[in-house]
Write a structure and sequence with these properties.
This protein has eleven helices and twelve strands. By secondary structure, the protein is an alpha/beta fold. It is globular and about 70 Å long. Bound molecules: ligand PBG. Ligand PBG binds next to helix 6.
Length: about 325
């Protein structure tokens, strides 16, 4: 036997001939932070190259992303007021609602995904309504999410992406969207969202750190994988069009398990902390920029993800289009 796997690695041409996976620019989703107040716009110190944008800047940015070949954005709002019940979230004239409408008007083909959660809009920073015992009330929170989702749909969102981890929210969202005539609005559920330390920079970006306690009573416990399959199965049953695993890098085993078990499209969220740790090493000259980013992104595809939400989307698309 003379089996020599190196034969197919000899030249760039043969390597590319046998290459198994590739990152498609159209499968990348760029997150965007849109601020209601101009004074809240500006660079995010823990996320080099990423900024909070004003509404006008967000539209300009979306145009640029589109010209680079990107087709989807994920919107987060930085509201100008917060209260206990996240009322700035379901305001039809809220920052996300205005951003959705403005981007869809400027670039109708851009697929606009609205993150759906309360933590940026509550003064206590939790993703839901806090009851008298200091616990998060599941069903009241779901009612709020539904109310907000309808306003996102009215503004023209293509997708709502609930990231709160309340039970039963996908079913409630689906039936209410349908009842309001929004049967074409998709649901991308953050199905397996872990209580992760890797959201740290995002909480600086969105000003959404919990003011007391943590999110462990609603987000998943990092050591669990079987539980993720159960969460995903429930969300699919409830009507989710796309399911998500988040974070990405430390959970690629979960992505693979999900890919093998389910046939719906799977998204991964390459979260802020994963972006920041790579950028920190790149800035110090400890890692090679393009190669380390490419290797990271293709690992998500290899694990089985169809859709990749990543702060590297713009940079990757720019490189792919040049
Ligand atoms: C809102 C939300 C968070 C992220 C996405 N949606 C923060 C959190 O749950 O604390 C994290 C995104 C990132 O870290 O890039 N609930």
């Amino acid at each position: 036997m003379n089996i020599r796997p190196r034969r197919l690695r000899r030249t760039p041409v043969v390597r590319s001939l046998v290459r198994e996976h590739a990152v498609r620019v159209e499968a990348l989703v760029m997150p965007m932070f849109v601020a209601a107040r101009a004074s809240d716009a500006g660079p995010i110190s823990s996320m080099p190259g990423i900024s909070r944008l004003t509404l006008e800047q967000a539209v300009a940015e979306a145009r640029e992303l589109f010209s680079l070949g990107l087709r989807s954005v994920l919107l987060f709002g930085i509201p100008d007021r917060k209260d206990a019940v996240a009322s700035s979230n379901y305001d039809p004239n809220g920052i996300v609602q205005r951003a959705i409408a403005a981007i869809k008007q400027a670039i109708p083909e851009m697929y606009v995904i609205a993150d759906l959660c309360n933590c940026e809009y509550t003064d206590h920073g939790h993703c839901g309504i806090v009851d008298e015992r200091g616990e998060i009330d599941n069903d009241e929170t779901v009612e709020l999410l539904v109310r907000t989702a309808i306003t996102y749909a009215q503004a023209g969102a293509d997708v709502v992406a609930p990231s709160d981890m309340m039970d039963g929210r996908v079913e409630a969202l689906r039936s209410s969207l349908d009842a309001h005539g929004f049967d074409g609005v998709a649901i991308m559920a953050y199905s397996a969202k872990y209580a992760s330390a890797f959201y740290g920079p995002f909480r600086e970006a969105a000003g959404s750190a919990p003011q007391f306690g943590d999110r462990r009573s609603y987000q998943m416990d990092p050591p669990n994988a079987r539980e993720a399959m159960r969460e995903i199965a429930l969300d699919i049953e409830e009507g989710a069009d796309v399911v998500m695993i988040k974070p990405a890098l430390a959970y690629l085993d979960v992505v693979r398990m999900a890919r093998d078990a389910f046939d719906v499209p799977i998204a991964v969220y390459n979260v802020s902390g994963e972006f920041s740790m790579l950028m920190a090493a790149i800035e110090r000259g400890w890692l090679e920029r393009d190669r380390s980013i490419d290797e990271l992104l293709v690992s998500f595809v290899r694990a089985g993800a169809d859709i990749i939400i990543t702060y590297f989307a713009k940079e990757y698309a720019r490189r792919a289009s040049s």
